[in-house]
Please model this.
Amino acid sequence: MRGLFSVLLLALVSAVSAVSSTGGRLLVVLEEHSEREKYGVFFGDLEARGFHLTIESPKSESLSLFKHGERAYDHTILLPGKSKGLGPALTANTLLDFMKKEGNILIALSSDHAIPTSIHSTLLELDIHIPSDKGALVVDHFNHDSNKAAEKHDVLLLPFPQALKPNVKNYFAGEGLIAVPQAVGQTLGNESPLLAPILRAPNTAYSYNPKDEADIVEDPFAVGSQLNLVSAMQAHNSARLTVVGSAEMLQNAWFAEKATLAGKAVKTANRDFAARLTEWTFKETGVVKVGKLIHYQDEGVSKKMNTSLAIPEHNPTIYRIKSDVNFQIEISEYSQDRLAPFLPAPGDHVQLEFSMLSPFHRLNLSPISQTANSTIFGVSFKTPDQHGIFNFRVNYRRPFLTSIEEKRQVTVRHFAHDEWPRSWQISGAWVWIGGIWVTVAGFVAFVAVWLYSAPTEKSVKKTQ
Amino acid sequence: MAPKKAQSHTAPSAQSASSTPAKSSSKSSGNALDAQEIVLGVWNKYVEKTPQRVKLLDCFMLFLAVVGALQFLYCIIVGNFPFNAFLAGFSACVGQFVLTASLRIQTNPENKKEFETTSPERAFADYVFGSFLLHFFCVNFIN
Model:
């Protein structure tokens, strides 16, 4: 009975959580209701993954990102519309407040539509820059679709993005080519470590405004791979914002379209890419979670055998200097609909810092075992020869991964008076131990001889 | 210190006693022989005139000095790693030496005038008590 109940409960829980790790309420801001059909497949895919879509016009009076001071939605998609403003419900401030409450935003831009000022200033706030003139788009004379954009060269055909760096996980990998029609290019500020490009323009691309009548583009907004077609920002609270340069790439028309790249007929894989993109933005991938965290004194083999308890005392609050300590942390990664064991990218390590103001140890944690949905990382080390208040700290921040910041405070005391090694355990002291006992033995022998020689001494005295 | 002092104390009398025959017998022989005879004279005088218990004390003090010197030498050559052990071992020797020297001063018949109130037995009891105290401290200090 009880087993049945728990199975039912488990099924219920898994049914509820079979969606993004933060929730399934998704707001789509779309001005023209008629345009809904254009994004039909995209919305269908999202609903199939368990999101509850609410499609609202920015002009709607009932539209609000917050209800009773809390988020009314978990995620938001902003699709371009005709009007220049997004209205009072979607100002730059409300969008940033939404992110402060850990809401995720996907912003789709389009060169056909004016970019609303609130989006402009939101992006500026996050150090993402877009061309200020309306209609600016990215063209490439080498990687365009010669089927649909034979003249204008403004439909780019690109492979799926590679990993940002060799030791960063790639959540956007796939097979095929992505069509990026009429994209608004973005450049990222150098200062922010929170920004990361997802899809970069090829080296031969540049951004220009077709309304400029000049034959030669002078002073373009940005060129080559400094131009991003899709870029991402992950805040310190792990709220995510993705800017898609081209809303058209999410439309049905480009999801599985025949295209021609350099004379070869290809099929676009936008549907896959859109899925990867929304999975990441709405926290179905790249979410790491810390489970059990334990640290304990490593008693060594001999002491373990003496005690009947196999498991040593966990998470003590006090340690001694120069003692062996074991640290373990359980990390899982949310992938699509469940927690899976987390493993860092090759060449990357989760690190443990044992720090008092500054780290005394910074050690790579290595995976020591795996459970069904987590990896247990561990390391053992010797506490430094310094007493005080220390922290076990795991601070793991990587692009496209939610951050891990764990801290456990412990006291490290110095040796107690009876914890020092005894003199005979140190072979260097044997000579001086010998010195003492030879002195003592000499003293005893002297006393014996002295007492024995007493009478003769007296007789000597008398004769003198 | 103490044995030298004792020797120098007895030296003048020994020298004066043995210098006249030495000078007359070996005037032609060199200065080295002269010095040798002086030392020999001093030694003979010491052996002859010193009470047996004082000799015993001198023996023990010499032994302590040798043990102490060996420990110090070892410390210089090998290093002072368990420093407390070196301190305990070396100070056991030095302390015992000092206590023995005190006993020698107090029990020497030549110093009787200065220690009229302290009998040799009392001095010896003090010495044994002080030594036990010293050994206790040293053994505890070396841990």
In short: Helices of chain A lie at 2-16, 40-48, 92-100, 117-125, 270-281, 300-306, 430-452, 454-463. The mean pLDDT of chain A is 86. The two ends of chain A are 112 Å apart (CA to CA).
